[in-house]
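Supplementary Methods. Inverse-folding protocol.

Structures were first reduced to a discrete structure-token string of length 150. This string, shown here, constituted the complete conditioning input.
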């Protein structure tokens, strides 16, 4: 009898952002130590001849996907909404060689939506993205759940 399970891997990265047209402190460039939890679900491999027998996904495989699509892109980057970017701002190469201009407001909520879209296409067959949780601070996080986004 096959059973559905979930596995989660945690990732950490540092990034700065600012919120365009915002009325609070977060309109200023500031940084966070982000903690990202990626949870996938599915049925573990039952084929005893498969080297990954008993696994839903090898944690190392999940790590490669998330590092390539998220962590290596966002770590130590400045993330800004395209509407807020003045091109002259980025012509200071000794300050900015890693920046991301988004089509969305780079809030924690919008980032989890973007991260889900980046991760889903790279998961192996039979492995489903279940949820993403992104801590912006120790006490504040945004979540994305597949069941909420059908």
């Amino acid at each position: 009898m096959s059973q559905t399970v979930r596995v989660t891997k945690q990732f950490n990265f540092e990034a700065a952002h600012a919120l365009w047209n915002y009325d609070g402190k977060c309109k200023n460039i500031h940084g966070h130590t982000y903690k990202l939890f990626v949870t996938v679900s599915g049925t573990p491999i039952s084929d005893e001849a498969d080297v990954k027998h008993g696994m839903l996904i090898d944690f190392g495989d999940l790590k490669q996907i998330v590092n390539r699509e998220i962590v290596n892109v966002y770590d130590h980057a400045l993330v800004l909404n395209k509407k807020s970017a003045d091109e002259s701002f980025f012509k200071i190469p000794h300050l900015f060689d890693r920046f991301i201009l988004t089509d969305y407001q780079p809030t924690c909520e919008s980032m989890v939506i973007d991260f889900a879209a980046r991760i889903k296409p790279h998961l192996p067959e039979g492995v489903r993205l279940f949820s993403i949780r992104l801590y912006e601070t120790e006490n504040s996080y945004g979540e994305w759940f597949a069941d909420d986004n059908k």
